[in-house]
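TASK: fixed-backbone design
INPUT:
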């Protein structure tokens, strides 16, 4: 997708947001549902991947969409042939958390259904895309999204997930020892917080091998150079991101809340937290790039294993929009990260 078409799409999305957001800060969910584009789960393989929706918590409306690739060994890139042959036959698990500012979108939104289908096919992994209570923010504020996403991880731990697989997939092909947390935008923020909580909780037999953050949604009270300098770019604006944080954070909290400013003065020290390896995707046309870079630098200083890929022409969440060749490169880097863990 070229930059001019992304700008047009961005304007359409801003118009969609304006129709849904009332002046008092609440969301008109009727417009949200009417204008949003959802696709149903499809048990028949499409592009080599079948999907099924499963309820995790009926009362809280927490559910997941499973993306299940055909059982066949994918052709590995020669650069990543270090993986053990036996490991290549098993499905690693990717827990995916969608973006939308904690307010909009869901696993059945066409953009995330398409992205997760592609993620499952290219990585030959079972992708579990989580529907958390974001579509009811600001009605459900912090920490509802974090609680729901961790509950989905516990659901996988309980063994219920393997019972939902089609008969053609042997549950023994699911590698519980290779779980990856992945999130786009607000979902990247969630992936970090779920990883921290998982490090403090017994989740055996699950083993989280890595965290993959795609344009993660972090912030703070101060205005960074990128927030001031980068203007008129597709998909996001400082004003709209501020509104998302106000909707999600507790009443009276500012953007230096630990949910937002990970290494701010109010946030806990992560030096002694046993985090897995972290992959961070950053775009040079993303107004959040300074916060994302600061997050990576702070993790490095805390002694964590961090790999950063910077895409000069990447907009916020560029992986969803197939932005020319860089999206292909992003998937290549994700595959390499998974293969090396």
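OUTPUT:
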């Amino acid at each position: 997708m070229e930059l001019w078409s992304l700008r047009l799409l961005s304007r359409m999305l801003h118009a969609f947001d304006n129709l849904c957001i009332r002046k008092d800060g609440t969301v008109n969910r009727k417009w949200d549902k009417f204008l949003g584009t959802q696709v149903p789960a499809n048990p028949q393989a499409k592009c080599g991947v079948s999907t099924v929706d499963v309820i995790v918590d009926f009362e809280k409306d927490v559910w997941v969409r499973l993306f299940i690739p055909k059982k066949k060994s994918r052709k590995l890139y020669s650069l990543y042939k270090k993986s053990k042959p036996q490991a290549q036959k098993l499905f690693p698990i990717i827990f995916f958390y969608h973006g939308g500012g904690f307010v909009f979108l869901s696993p059945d939104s066409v953009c995330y259904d398409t992205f997760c289908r592609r993620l499952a096919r290219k990585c030959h992994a079972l992708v579990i895309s989580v529907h958390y209570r974001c579509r009811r923010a600001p009605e459900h504020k912090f920490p509802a999204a974090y609680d729901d996403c961790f509950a989905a991880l516990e659901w996988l731990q309980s063994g219920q997930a393997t019972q939902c697989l089609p008969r053609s997939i042997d549950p023994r092909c699911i590698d519980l020892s290779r779980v990856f947390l992945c999130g786009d935008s607000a979902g990247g923020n969630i992936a970090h917080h779920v990883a921290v909580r998982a490090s403090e909780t017994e989740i055996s037999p699950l083993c989280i091998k890595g965290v993959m953050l795609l344009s993660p949604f972090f912030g703070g009270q101060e205005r960074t150079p990128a927030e001031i300098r980068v203007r008129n770019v597709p998909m996001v604006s400082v004003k709209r991101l501020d509104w998302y944080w106000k909707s999600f954070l507790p009443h009276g909290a500012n953007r230096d809340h630990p949910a937002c400013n990970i290494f701010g003065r109010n946030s806990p020290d992560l030096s002694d937290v046993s985090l897995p390896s972290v992959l961070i995707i950053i775009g040079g046309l993303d107004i959040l790039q300074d916060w994302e870079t600061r997050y990576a630098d702070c993790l490095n200083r805390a002694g964590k294993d961090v790999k950063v890929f910077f895409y000069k022409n990447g907009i916020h969440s560029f992986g969803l929009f197939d932005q020319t060749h860089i999206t292909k490169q992003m998937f290549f880097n994700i595959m390499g990260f998974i293969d090396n863990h």
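COMMENT: The longest strand covers residues 174-184.
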